[in-house]
Amino acid sequence: MTVTAASTSTTTSSPVTSGPTPGALVTVRDLQVSYGAGPLVLDGVDLDLYPGETVALLGSSGSGKSTLMRCLTGFAPISSGTVQVSGHELTSLRRSRLRDLRASVGQVFQQFNLVGRLSVLTNVLTGALHRAGPINAVGGFTSADRRRAMELLDRVGIAHKATVQARTLSGGQQQRVAIARALMQRPQVVLADEPVASLDPKMSHAVLDLLRQIAREDGIPVLVSLHVLPLALEHSDRIVGLRHGRMLVSAPTADLDADRLEVLYADGTEEADGAHR
Ligand SMILES: Nc1ncnc2c1ncn2[C@@H]1O[C@H](COP(=O)(O)OP(=O)(O)OP(=O)(O)O)[C@@H](O)[C@H]1O
């Protein structure tokens, strides 16, 4: 795993960096975001994501985790700063190029976002549409697409459910299907926004194991937001943490423990206090 010099210790302010870091697939610099005329919800955020690493994104409710993820797909109102994905500056891309770039970012969500009445296999196949565009949907999927979708279902351990409706699966099984769908895009990076928030502890470990395995085997970065510190400490190579929109922690997981991460939750809001333990 590669880490930046700025990420080798817990920081109390944003690391001072400029330009893309060699080897990073995602580089965010001095990012500021506000919704409408509201206050800054991200303020001076820097982030690098490297091939093969799993990075846990922590922070109390409202600290800006989802907004940061949205920035990586061009769906957040960026006020200033830069976001580079695979060497492309996202903030200056035309719409068609932005669509291409989004296709290279696989996403996994808390609520799985499957189409419940469609088969598991078809749900995975829809991942191919991100790259091919909607026109391909008219012509249907190719046999190569189907073969790949079955291989991915096998990889996530759920090929035996390929023909059943997605809504008949358990939460953990549905999240595996969602991961297979994201992989169908042949992503260069995977963003998982609270992927285990709806799962029981056993399933949570299994899904996070799977995501980390994918990062390593495919050599892509996986950024996963979590609310439970022990899960982050067990299933990540590096932890970054937001508090009130500022990146307060950026360090290898091996250098961190729950006490050092408390800084993210001091003065926390809503369910943050205590819920992360
Ligand atoms: N579409 C929006 N319009 C206006 N404000 C928004 C919007 N989305 C998020 N916010 C605000 O931005 C801030 C950060 O929200 P965000 O959802 O990124 O936090 P989060 O860390 O992901 O929270 P949670 O852990 O609860 O999901 C919050 O104050 C939130 O109210």
TrEMBL record:
Residues 1-23 are annotated as: Disordered. CDD domains: ABC_PhnC_transporter (cd03256). InterPro entries: AAA+_ATPase (IPR003593), ABC_transporter-like_ATP-bd (IPR003439), ABC_transporter-like_CS (IPR017871), ABC_transpr_PhnC (IPR012693), MetN_ABC_transporter-like (IPR050086), P-loop_NTPase (IPR027417). SMART domains: AAA (SM00382). The keyword Transport applies. Pfam families: ABC_tran. The keyword ATP-binding applies. Keywords: ATP-binding, Cell membrane, Membrane, Nucleotide-binding, Translocase, Transport. Residues 26-269 form the ABC transporter domain. PROSITE patterns: ABC_TRANSPORTER_1, ABC_TRANSPORTER_2. SUPFAM superfamilies: P-loop containing nucleoside triphosphate hydrolases. One of its GO terms (molecular function) is ATP binding. NCBIfam families: ABC_phnC. PANTHER family: AMINO ACID IMPORT ATP-BINDING PROTEIN, PHOSPHONATES IMPORT ATP-BINDING PROTEIN PHNC. This is Phosphonate transport system ATP-binding protein.
